[in-house]
Amino acid sequence: MAEAVKQGAETAGSSVTLRHLDDHLTAFLRDCRTCRCENGECGIEDGFRPLFFDDFLPADGVVFCTPVYWYGVSAQTKAFFDRTFCFYSGSYPDSASVINRMSRKRIGLVLASEETYPGASLGIIHQIQEYARYTHSDFVDVVRGIGNRRGEVARDPGDPLAAAERLGGGMFGRVTSDYRIDTERSSRVWE
After folding, report:
1. Is 10 left (phi over 0), alpha (psi -120 to 50) or beta?
2. Does residue 176 carry a pLDDT above 90?
3. Closest residue by Cα to residue 136 from 167, 168, 170, 102
4. CA 96/CA 77 separation, integer angstroms
5. Which CATH superfamily is domain 2-7+50-169 in?
6. Quick one: 155 exposed, middle or buried, by C-beta within 10 A (0-12, 13-18, 19+)?
C-alpha cells in the first residue's frame, strides 16, 4: 500500500521518498536527562537523526504506513514519534526551528490488519489525528487494508491499493477541514 501511495503521489507530480523505519531506528526513546550529549544532541547513535532532519523535517507531507499490532501502530512507528522529542524539547539547542519545521504538514495514514472490525484502528487514527492537531498539521485521510499474509490486501474487496493511490494523488489537493466552535466557515463545503 505504501508503494501505491507513492505511485499516486508521483503521478500527481509530487517528489516522493519511501523510507522503512527499520532501516533507521535501532533504539527507543530514553531519558534525555541521562543520555543527551553535552552539545545538546541526542545520545542515541542510529539512523534516526538523518531520517528526521533530512527526510521528515523538509517534507511538506508524510504518509505513515503501519501494520496494526495490538490495536496500535508498530513499535518502530511509535518510536519515531517518541524520538522526535529529543529535538523539539527545550533542552535541544535549536528546538524552536525543529518545532517550526515539524508543523503545518499534510499527514496521511495507511494501515494493514487482519481484522475487519472498524474499531480495531480507531486508537491509531485518534493518535495520528492528535499528532496532526498538536503540530498544526492537516490530517488528510486514512486507508485501511485487510489481509493476513504479505500481499493479501490486494484481494481486499474494498480495494485499499486504489484508495492508497488516491491518498497519494490527493495529498496536497484534497480539502481538509477541522472546525472549532469559533471557526468562520462558508455555507458550503464544495464550490
Report:
1. alpha
2. no
3. 102
4. 24
5. Flavodoxin domain (3.40.50.360)
6. exposed
